[in-house]
User: What shape does this take?
Amino acid sequence: MITRARWGTTLTFALAGLLMGVWVVRIPALSDTFGLDSGQVGLTVLTWGLGALVAMQSMRGVMLRAGSDLVLRIAAPLTALSLVLIAFAPSFPVLLAAVAFYGMVFGMTDIGMNSQAVTVEQAHGGSIMNGMHAGWSFGALAGGLAGAGTAAIGMTFSQALLAAAVLGLPAALALGFTYLPDFSSRTEAEAGTPARKLPRTVYLIGALAFAAFLVEGSIADWSGLYLRDGLGAAEATAALGYPMFELSMIIGRLFGDKLRVRYGTRNLLIGSGVATAVVLTGLIAAPGPVAGLGAMFLAGFAICTVIPITMSLAGTAGGTQSGAAVAQVGAMGYTGLLLGPVALGFAADHSDLRTALWIVVAVAVAIAVGSRLTPAGTVTGTSERRETRELASV
Assistant: This one.
């Protein structure tokens, strides 16, 4: 049962990544399909992010009462169906409403699958979170390639989203039979135990997630432009930056659990923060596009384990409120994903992108510094369980 749940959760990450990959790659075609200007496209993307953030922030009580298994059985199929609503939107206001709904159910799915991953990891008794998150990276890469393929064969934005929904809906329904119940959260809720404040350590972990999402979002959104305008890469070469970043994230996450067991949670987080800062400094100092692409590839290795580990730590620190803790950390993380690229763009407008990237370097250093307050062991280690309980009691 645990093996089935592990594969089911990993495939849920992959499905969510695939649906997101198709959406992101085909966003430029929004303007052609719905006749939007660049400002309206930007508003549409922002509406999705705000919908996801609002849903995540409201999930604490839902996760405590319903559990991740029930949330996923509802939210994952709705995520696929929401693409149909977007595809058939007859006007811009209806499009915004459909996109907001898509963001909300996607946010619910994101919190649900991370909370389910915590449940599976705890049932397994060993560090497997990075491997499950690798499913997201595989799915995002596959979705990006599929989205590019639909564009190459002449499919419209709406047709591409419909194809993704047709494939995604039955997959989401089938995966619903693989999940494990969140016994601790549901038992506490059924017993009528009033919701307690989350431990302060959950917010520390959320701050680390905020920083890691900010770094990833900034690289994803600005890498191509920096390679083209800052390092003089051709358009086709600059487009390779993000795929190379995602590819290295996949490879790193496949080995992330072994590294966590070998070196410990705290050491791996500190090392990730330091390595990310060093690699991004190299990206800023890169003399040309080849060196820049190499730095982009290394950046994926450096940052890839931070988000999976923060979700794992949130579930442990939350105790019987693990789902609520994951929801809180997820909401804080997505705030960084939304604000990071915006802050970087604002800074670049007042200087240049090369200078603005120092903000991301500073955030990576903050990850290394803040990680010193996390548990020192591994997810299976006695020291981490003891230290997490001690932090939770603070």
Remarks:
- The chain has 18 helices and no strands.
